[in-house]
Design brief:
This protein is an alpha+beta fold. It has a single domain, classed as Roll (Nuclear Transport Factor 2, Chain: A). Helices cover 22% and strands 43% of the residues. It contains 2 helices and 6 strands; from the N terminus they run αββαββββ. It starts with a helix and ends in an 11-residue tail after the last strand.
Length: 137
Amino acid sequence: MTLALEDRLAVTELIALHGHLVDAGALDRMDEVFTADVVYDLSDFGQGELTGLVAVKEAALALGAGNPVAHHVTNVFVEEIGDDRVHTRSKGLAVMADGSCGSVTYEDTVIRVGAQWRISHRRLLARKLPLNGLGQG
């Protein structure tokens, strides 16, 4: 079964919505992006996995002023992996209050929940080396 264009657009907009809500401090609306039992994997940052919307919200609040002031997402790639389930990869750019920035790769499992799409698993991969270290010696 080929994923309909409307579903690809809905998934892409879902991924973009995350940054808008977080940047606005609308953490109580994260259920518009994630499933209630989302697994938010920050292992690449040495922080393990967060499970559930409450844990994701608490982590953001605990980070406080250490949060980015702007989340930007780009290069969204959607791959169908089954009925009502897709895998996405996207690039995230975070701008900090001091003007510094960093980049991540988001790897998401997105599932259909009723008529909507929601992220059930998100893994953040830190971008630390150009070319992922290729040619670095």
